[in-house]
């Protein structure tokens, strides 16, 4: 009786030790040894371990699995079109922009942070260069065109309609000038210059009338002439005729009298006065965008996110292909430290691996008991 019990117990213990040790060894052989072991030229079987030996294949399979079933265009589309995700992204980006703007960074500091140094000088040089290029480009483009082809027709119509008003204004200003003391002096000088070339007539006029009296007589007559209806008609007719001629002239007829360098300098100086680059660069970005901040938050940013989401949704397949996700995952796994990988797996599945070892011991013990019983009965 005692011999039977001792035999069964002994075989149970042996079976448990063998079963537990076998499972423990099998688990360890998944990773170890990390490298093949050679005895001379002969490589020891089961070296290296399963995972080190199949690391390349495992890396390729995991990369293929991720691209084919996990990170797919459909999964990306689903995430990008999820309303909760959109709202979270909008809130996150708004917070980041607000935090960044509140730092008080100037536009110049931002550009220098982007490795664009002396931005004011660069912008001024760029503006001047573009103005010069545009000037010569427009000059070449319009040189053979008439004013009618260059100036918008509406502008010319407005000018044509206002010719009578312009004539009235000219007559009014002429009348005001010639009735003034300055005008009277001018009339006197003009009369004197006119009659001096006529010999003795001027001497006779001075003797019988006098310069001032002659000017006083001419002054009201000149004023009457200016206010005569026919004067306005003649002036309007002349202006309309000259305007018609002016409209038919080619641009090069005006441009040939233009000094290019002076014109370019004038345009550059005007642009510099209108766009004060240094002042803009020295202002905080938060101040520059302040008038548009609410609009950016309420409409611009959501629209940009929507456009970006739609683009990524349509191009996600191509993006994944260009990023070569499968190759990245394969390369990372292939270069991953085997020791670190073993530690991670054991850390994650420690309880399960211990249970597998215990299960092997239990199964080995049960098998040992069965064997002990069979041996006892057979003997």
Automatic annotation (TrEMBL):
This is Uncharacterized membrane protein YheB (UPF0754 family). Its main location: membrane. It comes from Siminovitchia thermophila. Belongs to the UPF0754 family. InterPro entries: DUF445 (IPR007383), UCP032178 (IPR016991). It holds the Pfam family DUF445. The chain crosses the membrane at residues 6-31, 356-378. It is found in: Cell membrane. Keywords: Membrane, Transmembrane, Transmembrane helix.
């Amino acid at each position: 009786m005692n011999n039977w019990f001792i035999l069964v117990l002994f075989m149970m213990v042996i079976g448990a030790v063998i079963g537990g040790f076998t499972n423990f060894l099998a688990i360890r052989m998944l990773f170890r040894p990390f490298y093949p072991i050679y005895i001379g030229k002969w490589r020891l079987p089961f070296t290296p371990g399963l995972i080190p030996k199949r690391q390349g294949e495992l890396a390729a399979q995991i990369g293929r699995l991720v691209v084919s079933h996990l990170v797919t265009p459909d999964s990306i589309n689903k995430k990008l079109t999820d309303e909760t995700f959109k709202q979270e992204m909008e809130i996150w980006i708004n917070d980041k922009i607000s935090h960044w703007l509140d730092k008080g960074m100037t536009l110049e500091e931002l550009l220098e942070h982007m490795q664009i140094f002396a931005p004011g000088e660069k912008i001024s040089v760029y503006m001047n260069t573009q103005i010069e290029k545009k000037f010569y480009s427009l000059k070449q483009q319009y040189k053979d065109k008439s004013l009618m082809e260059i100036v918008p027709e509406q502008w010319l119509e407005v000018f044509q309609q206002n010719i009578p008003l312009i004539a009235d204004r000219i007559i009014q200003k002429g009348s005001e000038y010639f009735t003034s003391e300055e005008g009277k002096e001018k009339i006197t000088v003009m009369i004197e210059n006119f009659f001096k070339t006529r010999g003795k007539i001027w001497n006779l006029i001075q003797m019988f009338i006098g310069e001032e009296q002659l000017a006083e007589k001419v002054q009201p007559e000149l004023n009457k002439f200016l206010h005569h209806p026919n004067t306005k008609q003649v002036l309007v007719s002349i202006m309309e005729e000259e305007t018609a001629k002016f409209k038919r002239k080619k641009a090069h007829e005006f441009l040939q009298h233009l000094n290019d360098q002076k014109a370019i300098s004038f345009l550059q100086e005007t642009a510099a006065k209108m766009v004060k680059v240094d002042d803009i660069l020295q202002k905080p970005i938060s101040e520059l965008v302040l008038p548009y901040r609410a609009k950016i938050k309420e409409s611009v940013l959501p629209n940009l996110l929507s456009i970006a989401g739609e683009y990524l949704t349509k191009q996600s397949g191509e993006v994944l292909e260009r990023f070569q996700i499968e190759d990245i995952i394969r390369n990372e796994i292939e270069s991953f430290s085997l020791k670190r990988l073993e530690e991670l797996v054991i850390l994650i599945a420690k309880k399960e691996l211990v249970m597998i070892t215990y299960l092997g011991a239990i199964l080995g013990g049960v098998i040992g008991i069965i064997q002990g019983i069979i041996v006892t009965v057979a003997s």
